[in-house]
Amino acid sequence: MISVQIFISNLFDKFIGEIMKIAHLRTYTMNSGQMDSWLTLFENKLIPLMEKHGIKVESYWVNEENTQFIWIRSYGNSIKNIKQKEDSFYGSEWWKKNVDFVRGHISHREIKLIYDGSV
Predict the structure, then answer these.
(1) Which DSSP string corresponds to 65-101?
(2) What SS3 state is found at 27?
(3) Strand 106-115 and strand 22-30: pairing?
(4) Dist CA 74 CA 64 (whole Å)
(5) Does the predicted model carry a pTM greater than 0.85?
(6) Alpha-carbon distance 88 to 48, whole Å?
(7) Dihedral of the CA atoms 108, 29, 101, 60 (nearest 10)?
(8) Cys-Cys link to 34, which of 27, 58, 68, 105 (CB 3.0-4.6 A)?
(9) Distance between CA 25 and CA 57 in Å, rounded?
């Protein structure tokens, strides 16, 4: 199964990934009362840290009920960049020291792989 995934990843990179942006559409359901704290943390610490590791925050929103945080982060034009950049980000000293605090804001995460469909 792993070899099939690698083959598909290589095909994607060769034929599609070279011409479009690869990203995650992430939807986080926040723990009650955590949105304001999350937004401060996200804007002041997480965005700069992700950028340092090559992950670009494209945009982010809050739903009308103020319970979900929806955002897009991109990795360049190769699926291989996701693992490389996430390993760098999640391996950082700051993340290791603060992972429980960061994730304590979130009750549920949904992550979808998306790509630029304008080609």
Answers:
(1) TS-EEEEEEE--S-HHHHHHHHHHHHTSHHHHHHHHH
(2) strand
(3) antiparallel
(4) 24
(5) no
(6) 14
(7) 120
(8) 105
(9) 10
Q: Is 87 exposed, middle or buried (0-12, 13-18, 19+ CB in 10 A)?
A: exposed
CATH number of the domain bearing residue 53? 3.30.70.100
CA separation for the pair 28, 44 (Å, rounded): 18
Q: Which domain holds residue 35?
A: 2-115
Q: Give the pLDDT confidence of 46-101 residue by residue, as tens digits.
A: 999 999 999 999 999 999 999 999 999 999 988 889 999 999 999 999 999 999 99
Residue pair 106/27 in contact (Cβ under 8 Å)? The answer is no
User: What is the domain count for the chain?
Assistant: 1
Convert the pLDDT of each residue in 25-39 to its tens digit.
Answer: 999 999 999 999 999
At position 3, the amino acid (one-letter code) is S
